[in-house]
Amino acid sequence: MSDGRRYIVIDGRFEMQHGAIESPTIAFETWGALNANADNAVLLFTGLSPSAHAASSPADPSSGWWEDMIGADKPIDTSRYFVVCVNSLGSCFGSTGPAAPNPATGRPYRLDFPILALEDVAHAGHAVVESLGIERLHAVVGASMGGMTALAYAAIYPQHVDGLLSISSATRSEPFAIALRSLQRELIRQDPAWKNGNYAFDEPPTLGMRQARKLGMITYRSASEWAQRFGRERNTEGNPHVHFGIDFEVEAYLEAHANKFIGTFDANCYLYLSRAMDLFDIADHGGSVAEGLKRVRVRRAMVIGVESDFLFPLHQQRELADGLRQTVPDVDFGALASIQGHDSFLVDMDQFRPALASFF
Amino acid sequence: MSDGRRYIVIDGRFEMQHGAIESPTIAFETWGALNANADNAVLLFTGLSPSAHAASSPADPSSGWWEDMIGADKPIDTSRYFVVCVNSLGSCFGSTGPAAPNPATGRPYRLDFPILALEDVAHAGHAVVESLGIERLHAVVGASMGGMTALAYAAIYPQHVDGLLSISSATRSEPFAIALRSLQRELIRQDPAWKNGNYAFDEPPTLGMRQARKLGMITYRSASEWAQRFGRERNTEGNPHVHFGIDFEVEAYLEAHANKFIGTFDANCYLYLSRAMDLFDIADHGGSVAEGLKRVRVRRAMVIGVESDFLFPLHQQRELADGLRQTVPDVDFGALASIQGHDSFLVDMDQFRPALASFF
To answer: Which of the four CATH numbers 1.10.1740.110, 2.60.40.10, 3.40.50.300, 3.40.190.10 does domain A177-269 have?
Structure first.
């Protein structure tokens, strides 16, 4: 299997917000080329579950998770920009996380991995940027958790970023989103196969991960999309003799998505990244949201949200845009009418393509 | 323990939408007195989990689940009205359901209970009405699942109802609500203690019920209420050394509600009633929602919804009110600005009291 990943090792003790680890590896992919002035780089942070494979490349021609957005003549035009996407610290697609070996023991970290903060993910991303000889990014970009990480990055490294593009993200998690993610984590933790984090990697807590994924899908989309898409359609493949089985199309859809997710993501990594989203609060960077946002010194920012997103609702995008206006001369705020909820940036290309193109 | 419940037995074979049972018992409570013309009766159907104990009475002075609404000088004024609240067929507070003994075997029905429809619940309620010598109800009333049952009742027994009051309900379930309830059921069914419905009653599937209750609480309230109420407050009683434990106040709140629910409701009954909500569709009464609603021939109706309710959203209340206008001369539609979401009718008395008073 071809692989477009590159890796750096951050040598020595890597200080985190809540501990430290030794010499983590960070995986990343790149598209396009850095220009002579090294001022055309775009750093992309991902949501909770994607890898660094945001788009296809000669080294890995398989479609990436943002294939429609990144490439020649696409909104993030790789004939003009050098795009870098990092696999988050704490994830399991090449970067060090709870599933990776702890050099001190030779065994996987599992729950010995320090509590993860998105600031740690940002620091690890910056190590990649430095390794590539980039002094100042054209922009840092992220959606969902990636938007929080991008915001942390811009607050921590104001001298290294020109622009910020935040999509369907927030200055911090509200209790409704925390409650949903807390329950997702509980579903995984209460699967007996989780074994307090000590499951064999070939016997993961499949049941809890499937349940968490179903709850995730419910929060990533919107009621109006599903009303249009499924209505009250019955699933004809269900067995009517199984009590409380799959009767409706929407139930079959959730089942299919849960099945697809299984085996692709490490359960402990999921728990760490999910918790990192709850813990993130830009107010930690200045005592309040307003003061935290003042740390951001980009020249321009764009904040995009979606009307049907109830996980990262529009009022959180407005709060972010308004806060950024304290210090950022050029802030664009876009409220898109996509009906696919939080996931719109992955599917509603008709609305997102022009929005991103206008930023780039 | 004092008990205000009364019971009827519906003698003989009780035909249901998807089967039949023998001589079910239906529990109910009443407040006030039937007048000489027998035209002051109000029939109240409940949501999924309440019992018939909607308000205190001399026989049972404990507070009921709608204590603020039912009583002398309250919006449903028991010095004027004779109020009857039935425990739903399929529930476990005195009425026959999956936890009750099957006369054919002497053992509890469990999953041998026929698939439940809200029409069955309405039929059982009508048997209570008949037993009390009531020919025509002043009104049939219900919130949430109870609103669906009240609507079914009005469609099935047009000659027996003068008024309909539907609160935070719908003509049918949309796929978003179905998905949430489907996942709740899955959490119960996948608890090994459920044992395919054959758990010992003193060893119920507590884990699955707790998880389902937490998901329920998330869907019954609203993000804005929780943002105001909890913000990002930390829970100081949590153990910081427990990974992914209770850090935030909102997590402690869910935990407390889940604990309170345990032991109060039979798991199989929960599954049956939950599924009955998914299956309900007024279109079954006429081929389409519009035709189904034409069966309702009350003189007046009131439809109340809440802006922050995303389980039974406001557009479903509008659809119901607009549909009723085909045949009902006097239809009132009220959109309340309560922030407590679907549960508002249980907690936001300042908004609901005057709304109900205007109907009664």
So the answer is: 1.10.1740.110
